[in-house]
Amino acid sequence: MPTTAILGLQWGDEGKGKLVDSLCADMDLCVRFQGGGNAGHTVYPEGKKIVLHHLPTGVLHKGCINIMAQGMVIDPARLLDEIHEVEARGYALKDRLLISDRAAVTTPMHLSLDGLREAGADKVGTTKRGIGPTYSDRYDRIGVRMADLLDKEALAEALQRAIAVRACQMGDSAPTVQSMIGPLLEMGNRLKPYVADTALTQSEAIKEKQRILFEGAQGAMLDVIQGTYPFVTSSHTLASGIPAGAGLYLGVDDIIGVSKAYCTRVGEGPFPTELNDASGEALRQKGGEFGATTGRPRRCGWIDLFALRYVCRISGVTRLAITKLDVLSAFGDLKVGVGYEGWNQPGLPADIRRFSALKPVYKTLPGWKEDISKVRGAGDLPKTTREYLRFLEEFVGVPIGIISVGPEREASFFTAGAPKG
Ligand code: IMP
User: Fold this and answer.
1) pLDDT at 1
2) What is the three-class DSSP state of 37?
3) What is the pLDDT of residues 103-160, one digit of tens each?
4) What is the distance in A from the centroid of ligand 1 to the CA of 151?
5) Which has the least CB within 10 A, 32, 178, 352, 401?
6) Is the CB of residue 235 below 6 angstroms from any atom belonging to ligand 1?
7) Catalytic residue (one of 21, 41, 75, 326)
8) Dist CA 38 CA 218 (whole Å)
9) What is the pTM of this model?
């Protein structure tokens, strides 16, 4: 299909990067439309690990053009490091990477502000990549944009504007224009060959019916409006975020929603199906659940099908991708969240106090003992695994299109619905 999206359905870290990597072999364009260096997309091209934070995963496919669209926030210093690393691995980016001239720029001031906010009592548990303050500046109309990095006067003006507003928050630690402008201009100069009007590039590509993949970062439950606010990221992670983040109005033909076969979360905030016991620890160890960006241990728990059904509805998900199914092998009985005690609404509470008080209602399903990490087709999965997937699919009401049982490219395979039999 010409336009596809891969979106996380939980609190991020669902294994989106690996699937984007698989699908990009057949894509003309790969577009990141939100978030920034807070993402950590882990992929294993030719069996060797690489973690992408800013760059779209399509950079690992030489036939794919990659767009960092206007909805992103970009830390130029970290992006340059990433470009260097990817090119050193043999993936030349000249003429294959385009950065929106309207994308927001994270400056050292935003990193300090994120740190200051996180040192306070009501911390969110951010990745400390300056994401919230950079988006805040955009919406407060005091932000620095990629285009400003290419023009000394424009940059001085933009920095001055931001510092004037932020100084009251930062006191003596507020930076000066002089302290920031030199390095930012130098980095702008190095990034200049990539900066473009990327909305235009995409609209041309759509006219020519090129295949475009929109690569989501974070997950639905971290969406700045629909997620577990205020314990969320600062961007729109749902499919509705694609048009504004990419910079053009469009419908997406195929929206692939990615969920782990269990659930994880990093940072603060409610997580109704969290396991603070030996099973949670076993999921963490078996699943290698440590943050790709910050190294933090991830909180682990059972899959929450009620929440999954809700976000699939509001994000228009057409197919489910279930990842890390192999981690559930030999767990004994498996629980899946199917609702919450006393909660009779089809959606999720908007009020964080209510959300935090939710107690899950579980259905218990039989587990399987077999190691499934070498399975390469849905029909070869054990009977109980197939039944687990079937229950999940029927409850959520969206067909399973992809199953993943390991980090290698070939460990993700397509299926037309949960395997029968
Ligand atoms: P921020 O995006 O760094 O502001 O962090 C806000 C919240 O989103 C925190 O709970 C982070 O742990 C979470 N978060 C941000 N990016 C990711 C991600 O890529 N994976 C998982 N959690 C994330």
Assistant:
1) 63
2) coil
3) 999 999 999 999 999 999 889 999 999 999 999 999 999 999 999 999 999 999 999 9
4) 32
5) 178
6) no
7) 41
8) 8
9) 0.97
3-state secondary structure of 323: strand
Query: Contact, 203 vs 248, CB < 8 A?
Result: yes
136 lines ligand 1 (CB under 6 A): no
Q: Is the CB of 13 under 6 A from ligand 1?
A: yes
Residue nearest to atom 10 of ligand 1 (CA): 267
Q: Which residue of the set 13, 75, 114, 304 is catalytic?
A: 13
pLDDT of residue 336: 98
Residue 28 annotated to the active site: no
pLDDT digits over 8-25, tens only? 999 999 999 999 999 999
pLDDT tens-digit profile of 278-299?
999 999 999 999 988 788 899 9
- Cβ of 407 less than 6 Å from ligand 1: no
Q: Tell me, which fold does domain 104-191 have in CATH?
A: Adenylosuccinate Synthetase, subunit A; domain 2 (1.10.300)
Distance CA 26, CA 373 (A): 25
Q: Kind of pairing, strands 254-260 and 319-323?
A: parallel
The 10s digit of each residue's pLDDT in 66-80 is 999 999 999 999 999
Which H/E stretch holds residue 300?
A: strand 299-301
CATH architecture, range 259-414 = Alpha-Beta Complex (3.90)
Active site residue 380: no
